[in-house]
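Students often ask why we bother encoding 3D structure as a string. The short answer is that it lets us treat folding as translation between two languages. Here is a chain of 253 residues written in the first language.
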Amino acid sequence: MTVFFIGAGPGAADLITVRGRDLLARCGVCLYPGSLTPPDLLAHCPADARRIDTADLSLDQIVGELVAADRAGHDVARLCSGDPSIYSAVAEQMRRLDAAGVAYQVVPGVPAFAAAAAELGRELTVPTIGQSLVITRVQARSTAMPAGETLANFAATGTTLAVHLAINRIEQVVEELLPHYGGDCPVAVVHCASQPGQRILRGVLSGISPQVRAAGIDRAAVIFVGRVLAAEKFPDSYLYSAARDRSEKIRPR
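And here it is in the second language, the structure alphabet:
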């Protein structure tokens, strides 16, 4: 039997991968984050599947359910919002499953920042403007940030930022970033990307805080900061350039 950590996507039920949907449809037990899982997604579960909302469960209770289902001979779908590789708390679950001798696999999903960028209609890596992306958060009622992983340190590179779990501290974010990006740096806030309640705010660093407060956005938002958000005059990528030598083609192995 296997526990499948499945990236459920950013909110829209149809943004789960085909692999994730098919696994969900065959698992006898499904654990899901209640407030973040659309009902339409759970409709893919077998009719007789046991569905467990993890919103009010502790880590030990969640792992207990996973282990018990495995011992009872069930494959388990453990839905994770977005993609399991970031801010999903699967590392500690996998560590405990290793200790219990329970097999698991990870199925990727669409992360919130990717869905938000799609809603903005923006590529986050633009030739000569920005070729890197830092995905980070700020310290709140959560695990402490590692030493050195500060907004100021990331901002010193001038790279594009995707800041999660920070909308309630928007003033702090602006204060730390202003000396590095300047007040005219483009900013976008995407609330509930891909979901029915989605909202998008666009502005500049010096004025984004009042916009966020006026809109009443206080959760489930990604903050983007960087010149790529308003880039217009940039060279075409070399990838499709007519001047590129295509005599040596890369063949799939």
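Translate back mentally: The chain has a mean pLDDT of 93. Keep this in mind for the problem set.
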